[in-house]
Amino acid sequence: MNEPALVLEGIEKAYNPGRRNEVRVLNGAAARIEAGEVVGLLAPSGAGKSTLLHIAGLLETADAGEIRIAGQAASGGGDRLRTRLRRDGIGFIYQFHHLLPEFSARENVALPQMAAGQGAAAARARADDLLGRVGLQDRLDHRPGELSGGEQQRVAFCRALANAPKLLLADEPTGNLDPDTSDRVFAAMLEVVRETGLGALIATHNHELAQRMDRVLRLDHGRLVAA
Predict the structure, then answer these.
(1) Which residues, at least 6 apart from 88, have a Cβ–Cβ distance to it below 8 Å?
(2) For 158-194, what is each residue's pLDDT tens digit?
(3) What is d(CA 227, CA 208) in angstroms, rounded to the nearest whole number?
(4) Is 140 exposed, middle or buried (0-12, 13-18, 19+ CB in 10 A)?
(5) Alpha-carbon distance 186 to 172, whole Å?
(6) Mean pLDDT of all residues in the chain?
(7) Percentage of residues in the chain having pLDDT higher than 70
(8) What is the fold of 37-61+88-226?
(9) Band (1; pLDDT cuts 50, 70, 90)
(10) Are 192 and 133 contacting, i.e. CB atoms less than 8 angstroms apart?
(11) Whether the predicted pLDDT of 24 surpasses 90
(12) Is 166:135 a contact under the CB 8 Å cutoff?
């Protein structure tokens, strides 16, 4: 049986702890994302959604609690373990694509693989396969400035999957797109996520998109509850 893609247990996070202006963002947040499961995350602005995703993605440290990525505990191993888990186990997508403008779509997807030790030919082949799955087989050599917003975000999605992560974390991945483009990009994302069997936690303000996921969580006073 596959290990869960993500387990959060008792996650606590406060800013300015112990001071009069302390802000408690997460208060015992807990969740379990299974391999092959797509879970939506709904939260109003300022509720801690991005903080939760940063902690789950090992970009930020929780004050307390446990995080496991595909069965591997993130605590106790120091920065080297967290870096390895981020590189090998987690893919990230943000509202803005952050593609490297001087490189082609193929190169943007191949570079993370090469940084992880993959050979150039194999990295380019995987890039071509991923980009083809989201309908960009004719745009492989185009730079970001030559692509539409929806195409750029599909490249960013393929880049997130380049190193075959176990967990995908996405923060408003279609929030910068018009409704029709958002729907097409999201459909392509869902198809590939389900084909590859990774777990995904996708934050969105779009309730219609959230309802297309397997289930939805929301942040309520620092805890994760079923929406």
Answers:
(1) 116, 163, 165
(2) 999 898 899 999 988 877 778 887 887 788 888 888 8
(3) 13
(4) middle
(5) 11
(6) 88
(7) 99
(8) Rossmann fold (3.40.50)
(9) low
(10) yes
(11) no
(12) no
Angle at 89 between CA 85 and CA 90, to 5 degrees: 100
- In degrees rounded to 5, what are phi and psi of residue 14? -135, 145
HSE at residue 105, side-chain half, CA atoms within 13 A, is 29
The residues with which 90 forms a beta bridge, in sequence order, are 167
| Entry pTM | 0.88
What's the token pair of residue 140? 């492989």
* β-pair partners for 69: 6, 72
Residues 6+ positions from 37 with CB-CB distance below 8 Å: 5, 199, 200, 214, 215
**pLDDT value of residue 46:** 74
**Token code pair at residue 65:** 């609690």
* Tens digit of each residue's pLDDT (9 = 90 or more) over 109-128: 999 999 888 999 999 999 99
Q: Which residue has the tokens 């609690």?
A: 65
